[in-house]
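Ex. 9. Protein: UDP-2-acetamido-2-deoxy-3-oxo-D-glucuronate aminotransferase.
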Amino acid sequence: MEVKFFTPTREYAEKKDEFDKAIQSVLNSGNFIMGRQVTDFEDAIKEYTGAKYAVSVASGTDALVITSDILGFKNGREVITSPFTFLASTSCIAKGCAKPVFVDIDEDTFNIDAEKIEEKINANTVGILPIHLFSQMSNMDKIMDLASRNHLRVLEDAAEAFGMKWKGKNSALYRHSGTIGDMGIFSFFPTKTLGGYGDGGMIVTNDARLAEMAKMFRVHGASKKYHYDYLGYNSRLDTIQAAVLSVKLKYIDEAIEKRAKVSDWYKERLNDCDYIKIPDIKGEQKPVYYVFNILAQNRDELAAYLKQNNIGTSIYYPIPLHLQKCFDYLGHKKGDFPVAEKVSKEILALPIYPEITEDEVDFVCTAIKNFYKK
Ligand SMILES: *Cc1c(COP(=O)(O)O)cnc(C)c1O
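Predicted structure tokens for UDP-2-acetamido-2-deoxy-3-oxo-D-glucuronate aminotransferase:
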């Protein structure tokens, strides 16, 4: 048996007619940039997430760069974030010449340790950028409380967090990731929970002025054609991607449920394995298993063994950002963020997608147990 880490082809095969029809309709219309399907998809995202405004762009990375620019994450101001994430969550801060200020992660959730944020806030701090990673959201109660007491902007990197919802202690309602802070972003990179057939991203906000700016920024800063109010970007979601994503959004609840079922299969089978730790979900929230991670003893040997057995795995993230060459100038050294560094050596992502079968999960778990029996 071979178990791929990720495959989009099973879903395409299942719904081929629907995807083909959606793509064909764009080809027939010839409206490849900002076609009707783009607005339709933005409306569907508003409806699903409860955000007042949704502005699609070319990628999650662009969404982060544009929102960082709009929120004033630039010119030497400080933005507090986690070093245990994908590069784009921090490069968006550094690109505008703001200073990323890292806070270590919680060892159970791998998200920013919200208890350690306050000590990093000073007169130069302009914002907090939490990343909702892998399966669960950061502690938004604490983050929003700190932000309102210190007049900070909050940008939620919800690139991996489509479908995740936070209730917290003080609310009666579950609110979708990305809609709690000033602005939030999603990525539609093919592997993501809501993944397209190429790159794509979305900015969400409940603030009319911020939404207006995002709309201008994606078309070079133009308020109307050839009238440039800002120095913006060229970053739009392709109409073809919007058409594909609209099909996927129709089935997203089903896909999220299947991911939850797969994560239960893993938990049932791996719970009694002493060499493995499965992360906890913390806080009152609805998780979504975009990634299923374990912390594993002898992680690199285990990954090599699984590879030999035709099982794909992945490591998110092997090197925390404070130790990346591009951030040398921040002056960090090994040991500065010990939890992130420890987790980066033990974490391993197992195959998870709605179409994976129970037999395949069995095969993965048996291989893991066989490795530790050796
Ligand atoms: C995927 C991802 C991004 C970037 O999204 P792209 O659409 O690939 O540009 C940003 N942040 C996090 C946490 C991600 O996982």
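Check your answer against this statement. The first strand starts at residue 53 and ends at 57.
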